[in-house]
TrEMBL record, chain B:
Its main location: cytoplasm. This is Septin. InterPro entries: G_SEPTIN_dom (IPR030379), P-loop_NTPase (IPR027417), Septin (IPR016491). The lineage of its organism: Eukaryota, Metazoa, Chordata, Craniata, Vertebrata. Keywords: Cell cycle, Cell division, Cytoplasm, GTP-binding, Nucleotide-binding. Coiled coil: none annotated. Belongs to the TRAFAC class TrmE-Era-EngA-EngB-Septin-like GTPase superfamily. Septin GTPase family.
Amino acid sequence: MSDQVPPEVRPKPAVPAKPPNVGAPSPSSAFPPQGFGGGGASSLPPSAIPVPIGSHVASHGAGHVGGLAAAHNGGHAGSHRSAGGSILLGYIGIDTIIEQMRKKTMKTGFDFNIMVVGNSGLGKSTLVNTLFKSQVSRRSAGWARDDKIPKTVEIKAVSHVLEEGGVKMKLTVVDTPGFGDLINNDNCWDPISKYINEQYEKFLKEEVNITRKKRIPDTRVHCCIYFISPTGHSLRSLDIEFMKRLSHSVNIIPIIAKSDTMTIEERLEFKQRVRKELEMAGIEFYPQKEFDEDMEDKSDNDKIREAIPFAVVGSDKEYQVNGKRVLGRKTAWGIVEVENPNHCEFALLRDFLIRSHLQDLKEVTHNIHYETYRAKRLNENGGLHPISSNGTQESNL
Amino acid sequence: QYNHNINHNLPLNLKYEKQYVGFATLPNQVHRKSVKKGFDFTLMVAGESGMGKSTLVNSLFLTDLYKDRKLLNAEERINQTVEIIKHTVDIEEKGVKLKLTIVDTPGFGDAVNNNECWKPITDYIDQQFEQYFRDESGLNRKNIQDNRVHCCLYFIPPFGHGCMKALHEKVNIIPLIAKADCLTPNEIKKLKDRIREEIDKFGIKVYQFPECDSDEDEEFKQLDKELKECTPFAVIGSNTVVEARGQRVRGRLYPWGIVEVENQSHCDFVKLRNMLIRSHMHDLKDVTCDVHYENYRAQCIQEMTSKLTQDNRMESPIPILSTPDVETEKLIKMKDEELKRMQEMLNKMQQQMHDKDQ
């Protein structure tokens, strides 16, 4: 690092330099005026020592302090360049705030709520169990496999706390048995829409309270996985109706379920057809183009958008393949390996959903979908008003 | 083919675990977003003139924020009221961006009669809360600017005492003993004890460091203990570089020796900097949001509702929002107008203060 301050002279008994603008020392100060004086233009005599930091003996006219940029030096002390060109030595340590935040995140843990929608028998529960490598679906919570098909769509939410690498996640899986299972499926999306809005309303009420909780419990649906039946032909009208209506209030990720019924070519064709239909119907699935924040986001997300809908296979059974234990489905003609990218796109879905976009799913839900709901509510009533935390009436919901 | 680099961030032992799901990367995902967005921090400094506030701020953040400042003489200061001056600087280090705002309070404690000198400061803090409250209650919340004061460094003169009570429930106060290089170690110890006594006696709520986690290592716990026992920090700042023990360091040169700012046996500057920036910056912001702001907000709302119920002679506080009716809507409208009036008043005040600056 080159010094731009003049070489320091051996310290002699100090004669404090008197910058012209300073008046009589204030009564509370026991010292002669310190510091480098009142104006950048004042030039101290070259022999004045100690050397003021940021002195403009060489150059004048640094003006005001604009942005300081750090010169990155590998791992150790970065130096800062002020607008005037002098170097201020040392390392402040503001990058440590990342570590401070990380510690906090790990301590508090987080909520994640995922909804699965699709006809019975498409493997929704199995897929969720496979994604989180635990028995987290409602099936595991004790409902029998041969439950009668409900007359209307039911909403069943099951929560588990998972921990990994010191991070705690409260995972809630919201299942929707009965969806699309009737002959007349008109408005079968209504209970789902209602549930989603109820969670927004719950959060809103907490936010508007006089004494608010430090961390408002988040039950809002962060992600809705929609299971497309692998017909090989096209989307059904129910698929389009549902996604059209719900894509503006929740993040929808369409997937092709049970994709081991199609060959790779059939799968590609089906995907293309489905994508075209989604486009024609104007369905904005997650990650939505309009929320890409910068070029980096856009390029990452474009790649994902090209691959959606992911063709997945789910399984919670393990088999031995080439000396490794893998999750798979055993058939007479071979073992479908769930996590093998040559067999299906489960690994892509998992990486996308959990390992790279988990936080973004929550943020889009909070900053966009929830705000849309809130704005609507604000406009409805002519304004929100806070409620006291004791003595509230029962809600009408 | 879609590919990503996230797996690089996984802790090694987890990469190869069979049962690995991958949500342990969440802190990294949060990290990525925060680094992109950058952070902000607002620091207020309060204390009489000549306490070395500006020098300390420059030393802490390695800036020269006060280059073009004019210092007033005593006569000029007689009629001065306390001003609020903001300096903002963008600092970047290792890819992390911080927008630092320093709120200066020139004139504080300088007048002959200083009884009211707290008011402009508490007003300023309240104004920032009020602005945030309005923004938060409004429709467009995408880009709310957070100007709330996260921390106030209060400079106690080395031979006096201050009175922090006016501020203690509005902002995180960190009391500092200023210009500690005019005190011997013994004097410092006595002064610290005395200040701690006064803080206890008058029930002043200064910023409390959060408790250490039980799973922290011993070294960290020891450091934390030393930190807590050392408050209030006795600090020295410097804008000059001197040569001491063969190195160039920030310091002050006296005939009887050289004071090094970053020498822990000379003063507590390093402890302050480490605490303020490297370990507790995030917590300071959290406490501001979760405690001070929430107190302000709750108080504000209660004042508004009590005013409205008085005016309308209503039996109960405002009913909940899911049952709107004519009566409720009238109340809501009144509240909005009240808020608007308050805002206009504040704007006028700010305009007056601004005019005074000219």
